[in-house]
Amino acid sequence: MMACLATAFNVEYVDIEEAIAEVAAVVGERPQLVTTRPGQPWVGLTSAYAVHIAHDDRTRARIREEAERLAWAARNGIPVPAVVEARPSWLLTTRAVNDGVQSGRAYVEGAIAAARAIAGAAEPPPSLRAPLAAHGGGRWAGAVRLSRIVRSPLPPGEFRAVRAAAAGLRRDTLAHGDYVLHNILFDAARESVTVIDWEFLTRAPAHQDLLMLWPRLEEAGDRALVLAEVERTTRDRAAAGVLHHWLAVRFLADLVTKAPPKEWDRPRIEAAVARMNEAKTTRARWET
Fold first, then answer.
1. Are 64 and 171 part of one and the same domain?
2. What's the CA gap between 198 and 128, in Å, rounded?
């Protein structure tokens, strides 16, 4: 039996030897397990494949959903790993090339093209994630978050106002929902991206994927490419400005609320403040 402690992986004790043996029989190589987030399927990697292995009913449903969404994305011209085989307890896909590049014109243009393909998919997706609550955890967790925001460079009044404005935007565009750097992998040889992790596929305000990516891009030129695409394609500059401001604020809020102030990454927070102010300026320009 193969068992691993929760400190190393995402469940306390799970026998996955049978699934690993089945995958090895298909691809001719035993996958090596890597750490995943708590509650997610186990992930194993070979030289050419990735395998997602379920450990309970919820992760079996997650694997089935991922397989369906990947197949849908491929049919609609969205760059994703190919589904090799899907079984009730595991999903085998090709392994996307990841050269660790997260900046530059080729990377950003690939991300823009993929976001455009998602939003413009001709075929409805097999399933969608309902809009997520702003946050959870009850009153105590909310109080902790608020106390951290108060001690941060994020003005609480600005946070509340822009969050309320964004809540009124129409959610009429298909979005990946977690369009961040680690889910957009770059193949330098092909100058192409592959988009992974489709758990949060949803309907959202127009341009959400690109404006979610925007504050995470370190280079000003990369951010300018994203804004040029949004400005070129938007039908409602004012709405895009609200969403832009909100997603920059939310990025900063995530940084300051996930850890106590003594553990903050100060340079990263300072950069996020600059991004928030950039977004606020762009919103004002788009609203005139």
1. no
2. 10
